[in-house]
Amino acid sequence: MTPDRLAGATVCLDVGSAWTKAVLVRSDGAIHGFAEHPTTTADVLAGVDAAVGAVTAAARTGEEPTVLASSSAGGGLRLVVIGTEGLAATEAGHRVARSAGARVVHVHVGALSAEDVRVVRGHRPGALLLMGGVDGDDPSVLLHNAGRLARARVRYPIVLAGNAAARDDAHALLRATGRTVVVCDNVAPEVGTVVAEPARRAVADVFAGHVIGARGPSAAPRFRRMVQLATPDAVSRGAAELARVTGGRVLLVDVGSATTAVHLAGPDGEARCTVEGDLGMRSAAQGVLTEGQAEGLVDPVEADLLAPAVERMAAEPGWVPDDAGGAAEDRRIAALAAAVAVRRHLAAGPPDVGAADVVVLSGGVFRQRDHGGLRAVVATLRADRALAPVLDGARIVVDNDIVLGPAGLLAADGRVDLAEALLQDHVLG
């Protein structure tokens, strides 16, 4: 390889919740190398430097490469729900979290005690959903809980979506001690009614700030300067470029360790993204199995067979299967995550979404070069009648080289020609 081809090369970096991945893109748009390193949660920059160092070591250009980075180091948003009635709080919490990048990790019902606040903290939430009765109900529990959270000085953003009559007073209590509060319409305004969308939008906004990794060492100034986009935004931009290049509608499913995102893009600027915080290959693997059963995609026998593998996936975020059986289980979980996520994406969108021209499967699991195994993933999606409106007639391709995010980073940096070359050679070629 001539040095001039590597001069001006760019490292496109994605810092995920489990793995940090680096792609070295030459100045002519070709990929020169790929490296990955476990994301180092204690010091995220250690993993970043290791991945960048590994991918540039063979280049030997004598110059520091440009680094463009995206991040989803924060993973899915852990949501704690605080309400006054168990079934209502549980149902509302899960409906608010769905397609907003969140997953419910704890539901508390009733007045909070000091011990209850400690339990909430123990679940390491990224946000709280504070409910409190139907409109016109007794507001005393909502106001008590707002006061308790205010005095406890919890640092998590609070989405306040309770009794309309007490909402302003609850907000004032929380703001009096400087809590971060987003006020929404009541998520349960009447008995038996859930109005999730206002609170879901608020939770999605919290997730957008959380996913980059805004706490602890990942908030280091060099990391903040390095990261141009959150990973979902980089991949969305890559999907938009692919739609422009093909002149058709693109549906992209990005299956990650902690989340699964679905992006819909059209050549006319159409763009929509949903992120599922309870569907993923590692920390959210249990959610895939649970939701796969709920959706009728997994029967009890298969669920029992997959359960030990899912337990290991959830317990060991950096685990990589080293045999054919483990790789097959990985692909099965990926197929189920993709199918459930696309179902939810379609349910959350307009009723007549229309067919896609190109469907792209992306994520680390799809770097497996087992073409027979990957055909089984595609077959799972093709066989799902719920997905027929968008998949019928579509070309399904696999992003083996994980270039949709890099293409999005390059396009956002103004290098559309390099982004197009990546997509043509590694997705459409």
Descriptive account of the structure:
It comes from Pseudonocardia sulfidoxydans NBRC 16205. The structure is a single chain. With 429 residues, the protein is of the alpha/beta class. It folds into three domains: 78 residues, 2-keto-3-deoxy-galactonokinase, substrate binding domain (Nucleotidyltransferase, domain 5), CATH 3.30.420.300; 134 residues, Rossmann fold, CATH 3.40.50.360; 199 residues, Nucleotidyltransferase, domain 5. The strands form three sheets. Strands 3-2-1-4-10 form a five-stranded mixed beta sheet, with helices on both faces.
Instruction: Give the overall shape.
Output: globular
What distance separates the N and C termini?
22 Å
Domains counted in the coordinates: how many? 3
CATH architecture term of the largest domain: 2-Layer Sandwich
Stretches where pLDDT is under 50 for at least 5 consecutive residues are none
Counting helices, strands and paired strands, the structural category is alpha/beta
Number of DSSP helices?
16
| Helix amount | 40-55%
Task: Indicate the topology.
Layout: H1 3-6, E1 10-15, E2 19-25, E3 31-38, H2 44-56, E4 66-71, E5 77-83, H3 86-97, E6 102-109, H4 114-122, E7 127-130, H5 140-152, E8 158-160, H6 164-175, E9 181-183, H7 197-210, H8 221-226, E10 227-230, H9 231-246, E11 250-255, E12 260-265, E13 271-276, H10 285-294, H11 300-315, H12 324-348, E14 358-362, H13 371-383, H14 388-391, E15 395-398, H15 404-412, H16 416-428
Parallel strand pairs: 1-4, 4-10, 5-6, 5-7, 7-8, 8-9, 11-14, 14-15
Antiparallel strand pairs: 1-2, 2-3, 11-12, 12-13
Helix pairs in contact: 5-6, 9-15, 9-16, 10-11, 10-12, 12-13, 15-16
InterPro entries: MutL
Protein name: Glutamate mutase
Organism: Pseudonocardia sulfidoxydans NBRC 16205
